[in-house]
Design goal:
Oligomer: single chain
Largest sheet: 2 strands, antiparallel
Strand content: under 5%
Shape: elongated
Amino acid sequence: MANKVEICGVNTAKLPVYKDAEMMKMIEAVKGGDKEVREEFIKGNLRLVLSVIQRFNNRGENPDDLFQVGCIGLIKALENFDTSHGVKFSTYAVPMIIGEIRRYLRDNNPIRVSRSLRDTAYKALQAREKLSRELQREPTIAEIAKETEMERADVVLALESIQEPVSLFEPVFHDDGDAIYVMDQVKDTKNTDTRWIENLSLSEAMKKLSPRERHILTMRFFEGKTQMEVAEEISISQAQVSRLEKNALKYMRKYV
């Protein structure tokens, strides 16, 4: 996709490039109803759409489809852009284009979420788009929560539930050496093969103990009871519990 010159019948190598000052004058003309300038302005910002859709080139989607969806986001950005805020058009347009593409990917997402959660997410997205137009920037979660009168945690949960899935083999960093993939950042450092073998050995060692020793260790280390509580439950002294526990642990260490 990154090297694609023609997309949706548009030769991106021949697209016009306008400076910020020129674009502001064109936007004023568009707001005044000049349809010819509007068409030229959209053509002059198709490179912006192309740069955005390259972020989604690992989603397995047709680049032509994403480009068309991105153009819809570009048009929406132009219609809602307010020059009085003094920000660059690209600063406002990029989140709008990304939002439109994410909406498209979400609607075609094979992972389904509940209707209530989806409705909450749509409500949050509508609030985000409204605040983006008003603030001319991406609103914070707290601002969205206040606008929708929802709890911040509910907004976060809803928005996360409709995110498109990411491949574990998607590269997140690439230097001169090997690439770092999502899998490298989410790997389980606790449930390793070594830990699994250790747990298996402990389980086998527990089976070698007498029923009373096994019962004492279970209460002490799995149920969190004190020696006094164990002694009271099985009707022996605390000293006997301590001795039986020590002998059982000593045997298990040798076995493991």
